[in-house]
Amino acid sequence: MKQTVILSIESSCDETAAAVTVNGRQVLSNVIYSQIDLHTIYGGVVPEIASRKHIEKINQVIKKALADADHTLDSIDAVAVTYGPGLVGALLVGVAEAKAIAYAKRLPLIGVHHIKGHVCANYIEYPELEPPFLCLVASGGHTHLVRVDDHTHYTIIGRTRDDAAGEAYDKIARAIGLGYPGGPKVEKAAHNGDPSAFPFPRAKIEEAPYDFSFSGVKSAVLNTINSYKMKGLEIDDAFRNNVAASFQQSVIDSMRERVLMAMDEFDMDKFAMAGGVASNQTIRAALKEAVENAGGTFYCPKPVLCTDNAAMIGAAGYYEYLNGRRDGLDLNAVPGLKLE
Amino acid sequence: MRILAIESSGQIASTAIIENGEILGMNVGEFKVTHSQTLMPLIDELIKETGVELESLDAIAVSGGPGSFTGLRIGSSTAKGLGLALDIPLIHVPTLHAMCYNLLSAENIGCLIVPMMDARRDQVYCGIFDFLIRPDNTVDFDIFLDSCAMSVTDLLDRIAEILSLDGNPPPVLFLGDGLLAYHELIESYADFDYYYADDEAMLQRADTVALLGQVMYSLGLTVSADEEAPEYLRPSQAEREKAEKDK
User: Which of A89, A101, A330 sits opposite B41 (nearest CB)?
Assistant: First the structure.
């Protein structure tokens, strides 16, 4: 089988990343420069700062990815790059860089959908995994339940109506004073809390049973905090832990219900997780148990492949490449790029 | 010696190639079409039209700012990618300096040249410069006020101050898209003689980025593709607001 070596670039949010992958499944290098410390003091990602940092680091990250993989630009077969969705200024850096490299080296250029990248991280973790399967992509910017029909075609079954799951974690973390980024902090606090301490709602959308909504639970958490404060009660660790655990339980229950329902309705026995929220061990464990109890197989990449990285873009790029996708020099960043 | 120049700091992108002092070609993009879509195709057309081999380029000159943050970044990332792939250095050409080269001609020697770009928030990105002829007949580029962001009235005051030091004050030449927003203010506020640049010299152009880039290259003023980044002259809004709050 011919080996296709792809250099991939990802800059859609606050990670500047480059990777070299072979045939979409083998990772030769996966370099990630995270800007998280720069954004923490602002309580979230600042797009202009993210864009500026990408420019400062992108060449070094690409060179390290090539060096770690023992490759040069002369030994790769194509350049893949995230062109959406994401922060437009941040995306543009990767897109312009990738176009220039592909042009100067006369290499095929492949624009990749960021969410497809997250899904395809599963191909790296599980060499045997093939579509069709069901996938829940949840991150700070996205929450999609999708049916992966084949390597490049996806059907959206459900999506969030308001906040993304990771975004809800960030907001809850801020509300109970845990700081940014919220995901790992809320999970840690939840570990020592009682998931049934507060009866936060599990939202249901009548006409779209697979869609998510996290604004209701967020409001319920904020109301609980406010009423505590009004009663003059102290927001202590025990309260924080219970709020975190009860919130997380609401998220888990919402996800589990939709996943099991979709596996049944669409007759899927394979379920994969993807995106930054998939690095939450409590959610992973809960969904794994539920899927396996229902007779399905559970897939989830290791945490470094769940959060934003370029290896996943190489995986998705490979299948787009096999499918004949070639982008031109006018490839643009598309911040609201659609999945279907 | 061949240099490819990229200008994407303003609303219209352009690219040019210079070879030993001669502009081999220049391509100008369309107004209001995103540089992300036009810049690489402009470079490709230019390479085809001039017949220059990409691999024969010695450096990439990029208009380094100030200007539109997004425009600058598209130019910078494109230059960085080309520099990385071709293994050649970059030349970070200050945008306002290159604009002065739009006006480099015998009759403008000694004039105060004042480029200004609309920087929003009641400011312009601007500077005050002039060209002089040295005794050996070479051209000297003087900087009275280097690239900065300030209000138009502060800029006009600085110009008046410089002119007041000269017994025989030179004419002042304004250029740049800041004039579109502020020409009425200049007309009502300035009490010195001034002129506006001709249309073709009014805005950023890749050929003058190439010209100045070549001068800088010959002086060894190159940067690696890794380290190149735009000069924004302003922190991000979030940083600015935080600094205000922390005061």
Answer: A330
